[in-house]
Amino acid sequence: MNIEENTDTPPIAPTTQAAHKSGFIAVVGVPNAGKSTLMNAFLEQKIAIVSPRPQTTRTKQLGILTKPDEYQAIFVDTPGLIKKAKHALDEAMLETVAESMEGADVILWLVDGKTMPTDTDKEVARLIKPLAEKTPVILAINKVDEMTAEQTLRYPPAYVALMPGADWIVFSAKTGAGVPELLTMLIAILPEGPQFYPADQITDTFMRDIAGEMIREQLLIQLKDEIPHSAAVRINEFKERENGMVYINATVLMERETHKKIVIGTKGAQIKRISTAARKEIESLLDGRVYLELRVKVVPKWRTNRTQIERLGYR
Q1: Is the four-CA dihedral 116, 119, 120, 121 of positive or negative sign?
Q2: Cβ neighbours of residue 184 closer than 8 Å, sequence gap 6 or more
Q3: Does domain 21-189 have CATH number 3.40.50.300?
Q4: pTM for the full model?
Q5: Partners of 137 in the beta sheet?
Q6: Which are the contacts of 116, defined by CB distance < 8 A and separation ≥ 6?
Q7: All structural domains of the chain with their residue ranges
Q8: How would you write the pLDDT of the chain (315 residues) with one tens digit per residue?
Q9: Is the dihedral of CA 274, 143, 64, 85 positive or negative?
Q10: Which class does domain 207-311 fall in?
Q11: Cα angle at 231 between 226 and 232, to 5 degrees?
């Protein structure tokens, strides 16, 4: 993929085609329901980061799936919905979800089928119901590959009861079971409309921003429960050199000095592992060589600072 490609340009002028379908599909649900995994599965390539940690996704990201002359499905991956915001970052994420649902042509409510509906799931259903009067909703019950036979009989009806009248399906974003059928359901209810983006465009996010998210992904995967969700990544420089290698300079922001020490590790061993793993992911994305330079900086209470949140692109 050419890193100079301007993936943040406005949509191209619509070109109306007979029976062509298009629209925005807001993918919503509680943290760890599998929203980003599903979007990657639809696109058959990785553009959204995934980790076992809740609230990995912080901003909305478009995943654009185009079948020329037939449809353009624009998936909007959103942060996981929580019951109550703890700081300004949480508030920004909740606002992002609300805006995504309000502007959607279809709402895809993703749930974790391994468990009965939680209070947060019920709150999500409460938020969706008023919108369902004018916006089609599909209930997608994920993780069937991890469900027992008893769970597949008991749990789906409990979710269906929260959204009566909505079409629903049990599937697995991880294995792909049921994903084609879910896509067929979504395309069937998309409105007729023009192609808004070029056929070869898969997202509206700059490659530099995706690279920053891939660095943060490795922080979450490798450090697991050692640090809370206090890490952010700022890309300072992202450019292609004459030899074809992409040079990336990035800063990892932490809220405490103790967390900074954990990220760096003994004699810099941990930050080196994080950098190596992130570089490989970015090279796969760009299909080329990458030189990644990381440093760690302490910015106390950045999650409560609206200015910092805006600078990092979270609002």
Answers
A1: positive
A2: none
A3: yes
A4: 0.80
A5: 107
A6: 154, 155, 158
A7: 21-189, 207-311
A8: 444 444 455 555 555 445 899 999 999 999 889 999 999 999 998 888 776 666 676 777 889 999 999 999 999 988 877 766 677 877 877 788 888 888 899 999 999 999 999 999 998 999 899 999 899 999 999 999 999 999 999 999 999 999 998 999 999 999 999 999 999 999 999 999 999 999 999 998 889 999 999 999 999 888 876 665 788 999 999 999 988 899 999 999 999 999 999 999 999 999 999 999 999 999 998 999 999 999 999 999 888 888 888 888 876
A9: negative
A10: alpha beta
A11: 160
Strands (E), 37-188: 61-67, 71-77, 106-112, 137-142, 167-170
Burial of 102 (0-12, 13-18, 19+ CB in 10 A): exposed
First to last CA, the chain: 27
Amino acid at 305: N
The count of residues in the chain is 315
User: Which single residue is written with the structure tokens 């592992």?
Assistant: 273
